[in-house]
Specification:
Elements (H helix, E strand, L loop, with lengths): L1 H22 L4 H11 L5 H12 L3 H17 L3 H25 L20 H19 L4 H24 L5 H25 L3
Helix pairs in contact: 1-8, 3-7, 4-5, 4-6, 5-6, 5-8, 6-7, 6-8
Protein backbone atom coordinates (compact mmCIF):
# COMPACT_ATOMS: atom_id res chain seq x y z
CA UNK A 1 0.00 0.00 0.00
CA UNK A 2 2.96 2.33 0.61
CA UNK A 3 3.75 2.81 -3.08
CA UNK A 4 0.05 3.02 -3.90
CA UNK A 5 -0.38 5.74 -1.28
CA UNK A 6 2.30 7.91 -2.90
CA UNK A 7 0.80 7.39 -6.33
CA UNK A 8 -2.60 8.50 -5.00
CA UNK A 9 -1.06 11.56 -3.31
CA UNK A 10 0.75 12.39 -6.55
CA UNK A 11 -2.49 12.13 -8.53
CA UNK A 12 -4.30 14.38 -6.05
CA UNK A 13 -1.55 17.01 -6.30
CA UNK A 14 -1.63 16.75 -10.09
CA UNK A 15 -5.40 17.26 -10.09
CA UNK A 16 -5.10 20.31 -7.84
CA UNK A 17 -2.49 21.83 -10.18
CA UNK A 18 -4.67 21.06 -13.20
CA UNK A 19 -7.69 22.63 -11.50
CA UNK A 20 -5.65 25.77 -10.78
CA UNK A 21 -4.63 25.96 -14.45
CA UNK A 22 -8.26 25.50 -15.49
CA UNK A 23 -9.61 28.15 -13.10
CA UNK A 24 -6.94 30.69 -14.12
CA UNK A 25 -7.38 29.84 -17.83
CA UNK A 26 -3.64 29.22 -18.12
CA UNK A 27 -4.34 25.96 -19.96
CA UNK A 28 -6.22 27.60 -22.82
CA UNK A 29 -3.47 27.16 -25.43
CA UNK A 30 -2.94 23.53 -24.41
CA UNK A 31 -6.65 22.82 -24.87
CA UNK A 32 -6.77 24.65 -28.19
CA UNK A 33 -3.76 22.74 -29.52
CA UNK A 34 -5.24 19.34 -28.69
CA UNK A 35 -8.70 20.29 -29.94
CA UNK A 36 -7.19 21.21 -33.31
CA UNK A 37 -5.15 18.00 -33.26
CA UNK A 38 -8.15 15.76 -32.56
CA UNK A 39 -10.40 17.58 -35.05
CA UNK A 40 -7.84 17.91 -37.85
CA UNK A 41 -10.25 16.04 -40.12
CA UNK A 42 -13.96 16.55 -39.42
CA UNK A 43 -16.40 14.68 -41.61
CA UNK A 44 -19.63 12.69 -41.27
CA UNK A 45 -17.85 9.34 -41.06
CA UNK A 46 -15.59 10.40 -38.19
CA UNK A 47 -18.50 12.12 -36.45
CA UNK A 48 -20.69 9.02 -36.59
CA UNK A 49 -17.85 6.81 -35.34
CA UNK A 50 -17.12 9.16 -32.44
CA UNK A 51 -20.81 9.37 -31.55
CA UNK A 52 -20.89 5.58 -31.33
CA UNK A 53 -17.74 5.55 -29.20
CA UNK A 54 -19.03 8.28 -26.88
CA UNK A 55 -22.19 6.20 -26.30
CA UNK A 56 -19.96 3.59 -24.63
CA UNK A 57 -19.35 6.13 -21.86
CA UNK A 58 -22.89 7.48 -21.69
CA UNK A 59 -25.07 7.29 -18.59
CA UNK A 60 -27.53 4.99 -20.34
CA UNK A 61 -24.92 2.47 -21.46
CA UNK A 62 -23.00 2.49 -18.17
CA UNK A 63 -26.22 1.91 -16.21
CA UNK A 64 -27.07 -0.93 -18.59
CA UNK A 65 -23.65 -2.50 -17.94
CA UNK A 66 -24.10 -2.13 -14.16
CA UNK A 67 -27.49 -3.84 -14.24
CA UNK A 68 -26.21 -6.52 -16.63
CA UNK A 69 -23.17 -7.42 -14.54
CA UNK A 70 -25.10 -7.24 -11.27
CA UNK A 71 -27.65 -9.71 -12.66
CA UNK A 72 -24.94 -11.89 -14.19
CA UNK A 73 -22.91 -12.18 -11.00
CA UNK A 74 -26.03 -12.81 -8.91
CA UNK A 75 -26.81 -15.73 -11.24
CA UNK A 76 -23.20 -16.92 -10.87
CA UNK A 77 -23.61 -16.60 -7.08
CA UNK A 78 -20.96 -13.88 -6.91
CA UNK A 79 -23.19 -11.05 -5.76
CA UNK A 80 -20.29 -9.16 -4.15
CA UNK A 81 -18.59 -8.76 -7.51
CA UNK A 82 -21.73 -7.26 -9.05
CA UNK A 83 -22.16 -4.92 -6.09
CA UNK A 84 -18.53 -3.82 -6.34
CA UNK A 85 -18.97 -2.83 -9.98
CA UNK A 86 -22.13 -0.88 -9.16
CA UNK A 87 -20.51 0.71 -6.10
CA UNK A 88 -17.51 1.92 -8.07
CA UNK A 89 -19.81 3.63 -10.58
CA UNK A 90 -21.94 5.23 -7.85
CA UNK A 91 -18.84 6.68 -6.18
CA UNK A 92 -17.51 7.92 -9.52
CA UNK A 93 -20.82 9.64 -10.33
CA UNK A 94 -21.04 11.35 -6.93
CA UNK A 95 -17.44 12.60 -7.08
CA UNK A 96 -17.85 13.80 -10.66
CA UNK A 97 -21.00 15.78 -9.90
CA UNK A 98 -19.45 17.34 -6.80
CA UNK A 99 -16.33 18.41 -8.69
CA UNK A 100 -18.39 19.87 -11.53
CA UNK A 101 -20.44 21.94 -9.06
CA UNK A 102 -17.34 23.12 -7.16
CA UNK A 103 -15.24 24.03 -10.22
CA UNK A 104 -18.11 25.24 -12.47
CA UNK A 105 -16.25 25.25 -15.79
CA UNK A 106 -18.31 26.13 -18.85
CA UNK A 107 -18.38 23.88 -21.91
CA UNK A 108 -16.10 24.68 -24.87
CA UNK A 109 -17.33 27.30 -27.32
CA UNK A 110 -16.60 25.23 -30.41
CA UNK A 111 -18.54 23.29 -33.01
CA UNK A 112 -20.54 20.83 -30.91
CA UNK A 113 -22.03 17.62 -32.28
CA UNK A 114 -23.73 16.74 -28.98
CA UNK A 115 -25.81 18.84 -26.61
CA UNK A 116 -24.73 19.00 -22.97
CA UNK A 117 -26.10 21.14 -20.14
CA UNK A 118 -23.91 20.34 -17.13
CA UNK A 119 -20.53 21.83 -16.27
CA UNK A 120 -17.47 20.66 -18.17
CA UNK A 121 -14.69 19.75 -15.70
CA UNK A 122 -14.03 16.88 -15.20
CA UNK A 123 -15.61 14.88 -18.02
CA UNK A 124 -18.42 12.64 -16.76
CA UNK A 125 -18.29 10.25 -19.72
CA UNK A 126 -14.56 9.80 -19.24
CA UNK A 127 -14.84 9.24 -15.49
CA UNK A 128 -17.61 6.70 -15.99
CA UNK A 129 -15.58 4.91 -18.66
CA UNK A 130 -12.37 4.79 -16.63
CA UNK A 131 -14.31 3.58 -13.58
CA UNK A 132 -16.40 0.95 -15.37
CA UNK A 133 -13.79 -0.43 -17.73
CA UNK A 134 -11.10 0.02 -15.09
CA UNK A 135 -12.87 -2.13 -12.49
CA UNK A 136 -13.62 -4.71 -15.18
CA UNK A 137 -9.92 -4.70 -16.10
CA UNK A 138 -9.07 -5.28 -12.44
CA UNK A 139 -11.48 -8.23 -12.30
CA UNK A 140 -10.09 -9.69 -15.53
CA UNK A 141 -6.51 -9.46 -14.26
CA UNK A 142 -7.48 -11.18 -11.00
CA UNK A 143 -9.41 -13.94 -12.76
CA UNK A 144 -8.21 -17.41 -13.70
CA UNK A 145 -9.19 -17.12 -17.35
CA UNK A 146 -6.96 -18.16 -20.23
CA UNK A 147 -3.91 -15.86 -20.57
CA UNK A 148 -4.55 -15.16 -24.24
CA UNK A 149 -8.15 -14.14 -23.54
CA UNK A 150 -6.96 -12.10 -20.56
CA UNK A 151 -4.54 -10.15 -22.78
CA UNK A 152 -7.23 -9.48 -25.41
CA UNK A 153 -9.83 -8.32 -22.86
CA UNK A 154 -7.28 -6.25 -20.95
CA UNK A 155 -6.21 -4.48 -24.15
CA UNK A 156 -9.81 -3.67 -25.10
CA UNK A 157 -10.72 -2.46 -21.61
CA UNK A 158 -7.60 -0.30 -21.45
CA UNK A 159 -8.26 1.37 -24.80
CA UNK A 160 -11.99 2.03 -24.45
CA UNK A 161 -11.69 4.95 -21.96
CA UNK A 162 -9.03 6.58 -24.16
CA UNK A 163 -11.28 6.44 -27.22
CA UNK A 164 -14.26 7.72 -25.20
CA UNK A 165 -12.13 10.62 -23.94
CA UNK A 166 -11.02 11.54 -27.48
CA UNK A 167 -14.62 11.33 -28.68
CA UNK A 168 -15.66 13.93 -26.10
CA UNK A 169 -13.05 16.37 -27.40
CA UNK A 170 -13.85 15.71 -31.07
CA UNK A 171 -17.59 16.15 -30.49
CA UNK A 172 -17.01 19.51 -28.80
CA UNK A 173 -18.36 18.40 -25.43
CA UNK A 174 -15.10 18.82 -23.50
CA UNK A 175 -11.68 20.37 -23.39
CA UNK A 176 -8.68 18.02 -23.38
CA UNK A 177 -7.96 19.13 -19.81
CA UNK A 178 -11.48 17.96 -18.83
CA UNK A 179 -10.76 14.39 -19.90
CA UNK A 180 -7.25 14.42 -18.40
CA UNK A 181 -8.74 15.57 -15.08
CA UNK A 182 -11.30 12.77 -15.31
CA UNK A 183 -8.54 10.19 -15.84
CA UNK A 184 -6.58 11.49 -12.85
CA UNK A 185 -9.54 11.41 -10.45
CA UNK A 186 -10.85 8.05 -11.65
CA UNK A 187 -7.48 6.30 -11.45
CA UNK A 188 -6.97 7.64 -7.92
CA UNK A 189 -10.43 6.39 -6.92
CA UNK A 190 -9.79 2.97 -8.48
CA UNK A 191 -6.50 2.63 -6.60
CA UNK A 192 -8.27 3.36 -3.32
CA UNK A 193 -11.23 1.11 -4.11
CA UNK A 194 -9.18 -1.88 -5.26
CA UNK A 195 -6.98 -1.58 -2.18
CA UNK A 196 -10.00 -2.01 0.09
CA UNK A 197 -11.45 -4.75 -2.12
CA UNK A 198 -8.21 -6.71 -1.72
CA UNK A 199 -7.84 -5.89 1.96
CA UNK A 200 -11.39 -6.91 2.88
CA UNK A 201 -11.27 -9.91 0.51
CA UNK A 202 -14.63 -8.93 -0.97
CA UNK A 203 -14.03 -11.14 -4.02
Amino acid sequence: MKNRKWVIIGLIILFIVLTFLVKTNLIKEFDSYFYNLVTFKVNDSFTNIYKLITFLGSTEFIIFLCVFFLGLFIILKKKNTGLIISGVLVISTIVNNLLKIIIMRSRPEVLAFVEEHSYSFPSGHTMASVSMYGILLYLVLKSNMNNKLKIILSSILSMLPIFVALSRVYLGAHFMSDVIGAFIVSIALLLIETYYIDKKKWI
